[in-house]
Amino acid sequence: MKWIYRFLSICLALIFLVPVIWMLAVSVKVEGFKLDSVFDWFLPPYSLDSYKKVLAQTPLLTWTGNSFIVATATTALVVLLSSMAAFALSVLRFRFKRLVYMIVLAGLMVPGEATIIPLYQVVKDLHLLDSYSGLILPAIASPFAVVVLKSFYDALPGELLESAELDGAGLWTIYSRIVLPLTKPAMSSIAILTFIGSWNSFLWPYLCVSSSELFTLPIGVPTLMSGYTRDYVIPMTVNSLSSIPIILLFLIFEKQIVKGVSLTGLKG
Amino acid sequence: MNGKREGMFAFLFLLPFFVAYVLFTLLPMLKGLQMSLYKWTLIAKLHFVGLDQYVQIMRDPEFWNALWNTTYFVILSTPTMIVLALGLALVANRNSRLKTFYRSVFFLPSVLSVTVISYVGLFMFRPYTGLVNNVLKWLHVLPENKEIFWLTDETNAWLVLVAVTLWWTVGINMILYLSALQDIPDSMYEAARLDGATDRQLFWYITLPSLRPITSTILLLQLIASYKVFAQIWLITKGGPLNQTRPIIQYIYEEGFKNNNLGYAAAMSYVLFLILLILSLIHMKWNQRAEGGTPA
């Protein structure tokens, strides 16, 4: 019984791994290789020629750079803006606080996909289409991040902030020296999830950007895929190259990513 | 602390978030309402048509077809997603040396981009040369001289889309189940075991009931996410064959940007928004009832 269970578990794991292994294996095969049996997909001879070819002949590196710029800027701004807003909503006293918070909460109900058409019009009116700003700015106000961070700031012991206040610490000091350092894990969860979400975002970049030099990876890659009906090596090289950064990130930050997902539910 | 100064400080701290929030979330909401009441093209706002476009939507067979396709996708993917996510979580929760290996393997596809998973799926399910048909022939499930045309047949196309989507996103739900499983106190199992409960009884009478709140959360998040399905279908089948897998977002996109009819697309977005809003409200109510806590 135990062995059957183990065997099934391994099979499941294989099913999950095979597409990724296949992608990586095919990417290092020789272009035009002959397929006599299923194992030929995975077995040598290997070659990195397709990598050289893709890197030399396609703008994949530029797009990787764009994805990196957009994801980093989006993440930095989301963390900064939402932590400031959450600090105000959690710690500070001011008029209409409840109302302001309700407006933020209402944002949780607005799915980005349902406002994509008017968002296009708004960004067009602001003359931000086809620019880095157009890719970055629409994603920087995340009500989700504000709500999550606020719940963490709410959980900080009140005496801590009060005693800092009595010691004459200004609000900025309380924010930057006490609240931020104490909630680092929550902020890094938000940061990692935002980064992955932005790195993989498809629909908005697809609408926003029309010049190839501004493409991010998810919208650039499809433009390289047409015309490959027989050859699998180049398409899988493109896929592998565009996945390697995020796979590395996953291997390094796996613990935090998993914690972030279970901590904050799912988003994106 | 001086109240006025604190108010000023709060204003300054909220300002950057709210500028972006108003510009890119609240303003588009209003703009969308306005656009849905006009004939509106990619170039310019034309004339006011009132609610005509909403009436037109109700009579548009293409809209109902796309809405049905999306609903069909939801019906196919949601129950399978929940069962699979639970199954994987149980595998990854077993005390074995491979525990973290399983968790990583099941979660890995979730970090890949939709483009990558779509093209891996597309190439794997190719007839003649694709890996899936290769393997089926190798296992003698499929005779050597036969091919399965995965993407040109409606039923098969749905199978591929659901399989790829499950493979891609089930990891996130598995993690949610996994953390719920780890929250069940060991003492409950120990006590039941002392009373002579079997493994099967432990599962049916302790594990499953403890997972009810997280299941309802996953169910509703999944419903909402599935109604927004677009990219993997766009990349794998382009909505084909013959628009039979075209989801609502794709119809909105094509109507707006291919047919130059942003007003009508905005009106359809509002209908989709209403559907998602209703689902979200149910989710919030559900959460409040389950946890008696704050909506989030």
Automatic annotation (TrEMBL), chain A:
InterPro entries membership: MetI-like (IPR000515), MetI-like_sf (IPR035906)
The GO annotation for biological process reads:
transmembrane transport
| Topology with respect to the bilayer | Multi-pass membrane protein
Q: Could you tell me the keywords of this UniProt record?
A: Cell membrane, Membrane, Sugar transport, Transmembrane, Transmembrane helix, Transport
Q: Name one GO cellular component term.
A: plasma membrane
Q: Where in the cell is it found?
A: Cell membrane
* Chief site of localization: membrane
- Record PROSITE patterns: ABC_TM1
- Which residues belong to any copy of the ABC transmembrane type-1 domain? 64-253
Segments passing through the bilayer: 68-92, 99-120, 132-153, 232-253
Similarity comment: family membership = Belongs to the binding-protein-dependent transport system permease family.
What this protein is called in its record is: Multiple sugar transport system permease protein
Native source species: Lihuaxuella thermophila
From TrEMBL, chain B:
Name the family. Belongs to the binding-protein-dependent transport system permease family.
Listed under GO cellular component are: plasma membrane
Q: From the Swiss-Prot or TrEMBL record, give the protein name.
A: Multiple sugar transport system permease protein
Recorded hits in Gene3D superfamilies, A to Z, give: MetI-like
Keywords in alphabetical order, please: Cell membrane, Membrane, Sugar transport, Transmembrane, Transmembrane helix, Transport
Q: Name one GO biological process term.
A: transmembrane transport
Species name: Lihuaxuella thermophila
Q: What PANTHER family does its record include?
A: ABC TRANSPORTER PERMEASE PROTEIN, DIACETYLCHITOBIOSE UPTAKE SYSTEM PERMEASE PROTEIN NGCF
Q: Where in the cell is it found?
A: Cell membrane
What is the top-level taxon of the source organism? Bacteria
Q: Pfam families annotated for this entry?
A: BPD_transp_1
Annotated membrane topology is: Multi-pass membrane protein
Main localization (coarse): membrane
The ABC transmembrane type-1 domain extends over: 67-283
Q: Where are the transmembrane segments?
A: 7-30, 72-93, 105-125, 157-181, 202-225, 262-282
